[in-house]
């Protein structure tokens, strides 16, 4: 499937009165923001299977009398975007440390439709990716959506954080509701208006094959409803949340789907451990930042469609999924590295090379070099001999080497660079380009969104 970036532009305005800050250094003086400000980012892309994407995002910030700037008192984020053939994002996100005194509140309400959600099987290197099967110019072409399935997700979550000890250690609790609707790609919708070789062929996708082979069973193949209860601790010494230059942010979160609050036979518990550190190399200019994380299944069975889901207390993007893609392993295909338990790391050198004030708006530009690594450490149990026997009985031309490798799972790595454009410190436009080091993980990825990765 091909994707062409058409154009991206920024409109940043403010609706609040500003007062001038008296500088104590020789740098350009920032403007202290008060009241409400907002940033808006319309974007258009084109996808040969999904059509044009249109819509945009708006992020409103409230700074009160300016005494907390650059820390906002309230943030409201809204995103509505559509592809012309049905996929879309509808999201409303709220964040504040001031709504309830002494408690941070984050809440998300989203409805996400994805007519071509990525699916490559499980256990990373143990599964085979064949790029010629999705290249409609290759003699071995099968379908551009062979590694896809249809997914609709309705999600609501609310998380609370409060002081546990001093000003650095916090308790965290939360609840999240997920409702998944899963199925094969709707070829009739995606083929609407196409003719001849442009049409997607009516052939089984990898998802369909996994269902027929019993790797995805009848109780999970269509999705389901799940309630997560979260509890944990957070350690936070960052100097500024949107782009720290020093400090640590670490969290340990237990995520549980209790019996009777979700799909029968799929109550389970995950443990998420994340450690982030920010080290100043040149004060206020260059920072080395890294994130080390793992998520482990400690009890129960996870349905296949929830395996990519990563526990988080703060949703920086529309989804929190991996490994692979814009949020974890940049340059590797989305959700390429999936298992019952994973571990990953991100390493970035961030250089804030320009800081200025433009028409009373604080602006800085930042370049970053990065490398990402990740691996499945708790694999999904797959009996390849049983699968091969069943698949061969259903299709005599079946070859196990088309779907599975003889390799054990090993570290997946990427490298790349990115650019950030920040307005009033908190509205940050992000562009990253990453390359995979293994052809079995894809080739590269370009990601345009908001915020630093972590």
Automatic annotation (TrEMBL):
Keywords, alphabetical: Membrane, Signal
Signal peptide (residue range): 1-18
Main location (coarse class): membrane
Domain Bacterial surface antigen (D15): 201-447
Pfam families, A to Z: Omp85
Keyword Oxidoreductase: no
GO CC entries: outer membrane
Location(s) in or outside the cell: Membrane
KW Repeat (keyword) present: no
Residues forming coiled coils: none
Name recorded for this polypeptide: Surface antigen
